[in-house]
Every structure is written in structure tokens, then in C-alpha cells.
Amino acid sequence: MIVLAIILLVLGVLMSTGAMTSAQDLGLMLSQLFTDPAKAFSRFFASQWITSHKVLFLVSVAVLIAGGVVLVLALIKKKQNGGLGAFDKKAAKYVRDLNGERKNVIWPTMKTVLKNTGVVLVICVLVAIVVCAIDIGLGALINLMV
User: Fold this and answer.
1) C-beta of residue 20 within 8 angstroms of C-beta of residue 60
2) For the residues 12-23, what does the mean pLDDT come to?
3) Residue 69: count of CB within 10 angstroms of its CB
4) What is the C-alpha separation between 49 and 136, in angstroms, rounded?
5) Against a cut of 0.70, is the pTM above it?
6) Is residue 52 within 8 Å of residue 4, measured between CB atoms?
7) What kind and span of H or E run contains 11?
8) How far apart are CA 91 and CA 46, in angstroms?
9) In Å, how far are 31, 37, 63, 79 from 48, measured between CA atoms?
10) pLDDT digits over 87-130, tens only?
11) What is the pLDDT of residue 102?
12) Residues 62 and 13 sit within 8 Å (Cβ to Cβ)
């Protein structure tokens, strides 16, 4: 449940950051919310102001609230049971294994990356030349037939 709560919280934050068109919109809404909440809510829900961004923002707030509720419930359940559940243990083991594998990755040097990039570019040019030659050849063949 803790993993689900974290996923919901992260999803809510990502959605809410994508929902606002700019930081200025968010700042204006928050300042109005603290100075005159009734005006802020009436402006937010006014028909000429309803946009897909605001709907997405409301959905993201709902997801954040759901994530918080799930997190609180998971922490209460964890405290009552005296430990992590089976799913949480498996998720924690997966993350530990993932970190171990990440540490075993050998990253290429910049010289190797540049060399491999050059090889790929040369092969792309050669394939383009071959395809162009085949196209020209088949086009000439079709022109001879017609």
C-alpha cells in the first residue's frame, strides 16, 4: 500500500505541474485563495475560466488527496501489523536489486560513444545512398518499360 500511495502522490504532483499554464497562474490563484477565498473559487469555477488545465488540476488534486489517504491508511496498517506487507517487501527487494544492477552497469567512455556515433552515421549515409541508387534504378527501369 505504501508503494501505491507513493505512486499516487508522484502522479498527482506530475499532473498538477502539467496542469498550470504558468507559475504566474498558480501564484495568482494561490494569492487570491489566501486573500479572498470566495473570489478565488468563484473565478476558478466561472464558466468563461473553465479550461482543460483547470480540470486536469482538479483531477490531480483528487489524486494527491487519494495518495495521502492511502499513505495514512498504509502507515496505520503497518503500525498495527508490526511490519511491511508481502507486496511492500517484494517491492523493496526489487528496488534493492535494481540498485545493485545499476551499480554493475559499465558506462562507455566519451571516446567510445563518439566512435560508435560516427559508425552509425556512416552506415546511415551508406544505406541512404544504396536506397537512393535502387530508387533511381527502378525508376529508370519503369521509364524504359513505359
Assistant:
1) no
2) 56
3) 12
4) 57
5) no
6) no
7) helix 2-19
8) 44
9) 20, 19, 25, 48
10) 667 877 888 898 888 888 888 899 999 999 999 999 999 999 99
11) 85
12) no
